[in-house]
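Job type: complex structure
Entries:
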Amino acid sequence: MKRILAVIMALALVAGLSACGAKPADEPETTSVQAETPENPVIRLSTTTSVNDSGLLPYLLPAFESATGYRVEVQSAGTGAAIQKAIDGNADVILVHAKASEEEFIDGGYGVERLPFMFNYFVIVGPKDDPAGIKDCADAASAFAKIRDSKSKFVSRGDESGTHKAELKIWGDDAPDAANDSWYISAGQGMGACLTMAGEQQAYCLTDKATFLSMKDELDLDIVLAEGEDMKNTYSLIAVNPEKIDGVNTEGAQAFIDWMLGDEAGALIAKYGEEEYGTALFTLLK
Amino acid sequence: MESFRQAFELLFPPDKELLQIIGVTLKMSFFSTLISCLIGLPLGSLIGSQSFRGKSFIKKLIHTLMGLPPVVAGLVVYSLFTHYGPLGRLNMLFTVRVMVVAQVMLITPVVIGLTSSFIESASKPVIETARGLGFSGLKTARLCIGEGRSSLFSVVLNAFGRSIAEVGAVSIVGGNIQWKTRVMTTAIMLETNKGKFSFAIALGIILLLIAFIVNALASFTVRENADG
Amino acid sequence: MVEIKSLKKCYGDRTVLDIPELVFENGTVTALAGANGSGKTTLLRILAGIIKKTEGSVKTPASVLYLPQQCYAFRGNLIKNITLSGADEKEASVLLRKLGLDNLASKKAKSLSGGELQRLALCRILSKKCELLLLDEPTSACDARGAQLVTEAINDYKEKYGCTVIMSTHSPALAVNSAQRLIVLGSGRIEADGAPSDILSSPESQWAKSFTSGWKI
């Protein structure tokens, strides 16, 4: 019995090994298209959770990697952390969505140039019965005013992410104070955790559309308001300035930016989300 | 270092929000420790001192639970207390109380495990000596606790230490809500996500300081009441 | 009287003690000898009720005291270690003086050396009255002087209370100076049983011989 088992295991091992060896041969098109490996093939991309978690990067990167031979290491965090990582010398290029922070980054000399290339809209999600009655508001600012007046629960990211900064901008000078306004919940967590919390507490929340759509089935929430002019969310690419920060893969960053702004990536971005959610999640800036 | 300066500035004069966070942290850790010790010390002593059928299975189970990933404990407690969960009607999600529940789930196995292995090994000579002297069961038990005071005390401190340092479970069930369920660890996580790394380290320094003060106070109190 | 009949102690399928019949008369002092693992401690612990026998019957008097080989120092000073078992401080001081520990009386018991601790543990035991005294290698950690004090203390105690004493030992001096009877155990069985001087001069079995050959009186 033992001997039979050993033979089976040996066979399985051989089969497994030969399968591994066979893999590249099975996909000749990838290897043949594969460009020459660049001198420094690793690009460190620091980006926000919304870009990565929505599935956009996992969708785009294989095409970029096989076209250019680069390998992209993605670090995703809130916009604040994404930018700080670049300042600390741990990234070659950043992809973020917070204009003011991006300009600060450029002004500090850390970034070469801010290249806005796509946008989407933030949406306000909330309980299905819309207790604050914001459904017909013209823009987010008036919707927020109604939420404040009715003291309806609202979950804020509270983590200085791009979404949080966009939310604060919409509140303007009358941003609620979590210490005194008990309806205003400052969660200090990522988008997913905040949406979960909003669902649990039947609260409103400002979110990017992609993350919400990807979680919609588990949440007892609906999109209450979409596409107000003040809800536009622009994403930019910024190469890290090699004159300010050592060890930056400048060629890699440039190759990534060139490819992202090119036609191939544009076509891919424009139709991303249609298949899964029935609507494109990002629009190219022209 | 920058972080030390920031830690100092937060403490002198004390930042109002920091004080509130420290308060929540201590409250959560204190009650989690108290409840897990109320359950774990007697149970652990019982398992350690008695021999019974299925003991080795129970010990394996406890050792497995001692390694329970906090995130898993958090998820289990979350699904119990979620709006449509079995305990959703209690409306306890995102409160300090539910954080204590998750912590108790994490820490109790640790208290039981440490107590039972302590009683099993360290108490053996005490028990043998006491029984050799013809002492009653009650007197033997009292001696065991008296002799093992410092070890049992370190079990309690260990529980407290785990509780105060835990982040995975409390962020899931507590939600890291400002002025409500934010504790030191989730605040550190938040600052890290914001990219304010040196401020996060400053909070870490303060957390260590709190842990140190609690330890020192506790061992001071115990030493005062010891040695008669 | 201590009566043992068809006593067996097994761990799994390993038999560590197998004694068909053994009787200790009241007021006698018996020494148990035998190599490590021969069953001396197991026998004493069964008699003391610390561990359970696997089969057979064991009859012991109502009051039994047992001194384990691994002595334990309780918290507190030497006096407190003795008064813990019910003696008053005066009795404790007398016992400590008897075993040469009076100069350490107010020291912490935890700070004692092995030999001192063994004598303290003996004081603690001897501060109580009993009908059966069980001692597991009471001089194993003692130097010659300490062993002599221990031997004297055991003899005096026996004299005073007339109790039965069973002690295991590797020391022929203790066996000869205190015991009327020596039982040699080997692999859980009785190898020899008789007067200490007889066994030491002419062992009943090869095994007892090889074991006692190292003994010099």
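Summary: The two ends of chain A are 70 Å apart (CA to CA). Chains A and C do not touch (no CB pair under 8 Å).
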